[in-house]
């Protein structure tokens, strides 16, 4: 497996793949690879002839008080895992390679970026759309793979690709969880053993909402309250948001009707975690 | 020559060109084709196997009080001219094809868009970068051709292509002028015979500045004053801006040193015209 650091070399690598008539898959990551990322990579390898994984901790998607400096970085370990998953090349550019002096172009999706994580993290999605736009231009993949864990990110990127007529297919892969339900996340390494246990409140509260919907509950306020109470009962947890929107449009709803996204962001100690599920109302009116 | 109205058909056309091993050139226009556009098309045909010209009056680059509705449109005449210049296909989408309901993604270049036309026309360059970004994704040209008449637009698009790592080469073609010096523009059709004569003040004032520089003048304030006075002497003309910046960085300068962009926007009656030249100081200190 190659580790490629320059944009020029990355372009040359994919040109060679095209010349050989091969399809190219891209898995954009910030590294600290876990089973969620590796699932993306394996699916990419199943669907494409040559798979590139990018590992780039993207400074412009972090707020000034967020964990850019502390974000876990371990290229050696990541490389082993990616190679085992079948990845052909890791694209691992420096910040200066991606954002040289004078850089001043940004891609922004309006509307759906102003809710959920967009409200808690102003500028975050502009950072995501800008870097993914660049990665799509550098690698020019046939398919790019993203995890449903970042449900809003997926919707924002789908919007960008559609609006800007980008010639790439976005493939969305379900959330991968630990045996006890915690969604895999690079930020889970921040958790102390006690916090790790407390973090189960995210998936548990989602499950409660799903059970309530299965039992016929359709009132959005009731469902949000159910989740909020469950989280409030965990002393180490602080709610950032618990939101329920129509899916995939993220429109405001009072009652379930068709699909809805239940999404949460919760601080466990100092670590902010997100999780979500799609609720499907069957008997609401 | 084909006239293609849908994005899907446009993509299919270029895929066929690629399959035949042909290079693709793109000339983005808003129609009302004049000799400037046709020069771009002829150069594109000389440099590329297959040339696409887009004709799309892009609503999002016009301000609310600008001439979007009145902008000259004549597809029949434009088609004849483009075909004669060697263009293989015109891409002529509807506004709904380019900006369907729910469209909400914008590409923005910061910094250099805040001067010159960016100051007079807020939102203009975001409209330009967004539509050109879309056109580049739809047509995926090897080379795209733009006129130096829109000097700031060229700098903004170069910035976008570089920052977003777009895989396209921008080719810049010199200003084409009428025999008496007026820069060719689709908006020249708005001018009455009297205004047409008055409009010569733009190129004449640029020429005065060039003569002054050739005679050793290096003081930016003096050069701006020279141009402003020349325009003020023409009763039908109103200055929007007369600006002189370092080129290509558009940095503020007090004295000429190397290349500088002298750019002007002038209203002749109700018609806003722009013109520019590159000044090259040889003996300044």
From TrEMBL, chains A, B:
Mention any Pfam family matching this sequence: Pantoate_ligase
- Where does the record place the catalytic residues? 37 (proton donor)
Keyword set for this entry? Answer: ATP-binding, Cytoplasm, Ligase, Nucleotide-binding, Pantothenate biosynthesis
* Catalytic function, reaction form: (R)-pantoate + beta-alanine + ATP = (R)-pantothenate + AMP + diphosphate + H(+)
Q: Which molecular function term from Gene Ontology is one that the record holds?
A: pantoate-beta-alanine ligase activity
Q: Which GO terms describe its cellular component?
A: cytosol
The EC number(s) attached to this protein equal: 6.3.2.1
Q: Where does ATP bind?
A: 30-37, 147-150, 176, 184-187
- One of this protein's GO BP terms? pantothenate biosynthetic process
Question: Lipid metabolism as a keyword?
Answer: no
Q: Which Gene3D superfamilies match?
A: HUPs, Pantoate-beta-alanine ligase, C-terminal domain
Q: Which residues bind beta-alanine?
A: 61
Provide the protein's localization. Answer: Cytoplasm
EC top class named in words: ligase
Annotated (R)-pantoate binding lies at 61, 153
What pathway is this protein said to act in by its record? Cofactor biosynthesis; (R)-pantothenate biosynthesis; (R)-pantothenate from (R)-pantoate and beta-alanine: step 1/1
Note in the entry:
The reaction proceeds by a bi uni uni bi ping pong mechanism.
Q: Which NCBIfam families match?
A: panC (TIGR00018)
Q: What does this protein do?
A: Catalyzes the condensation of pantoate with beta-alanine in an ATP-dependent reaction via a pantoyl-adenylate intermediate.
Q: Which family does it belong to?
A: Belongs to the pantothenate synthetase family.
Q: Cite the HAMAP family for this sequence.
A: PanC
Q: Would you tell me the protein name for this molecule?
A: Pantothenate synthetase
Task: Give the organism the record lists.
Answer: Propionispora hippei DSM 15287
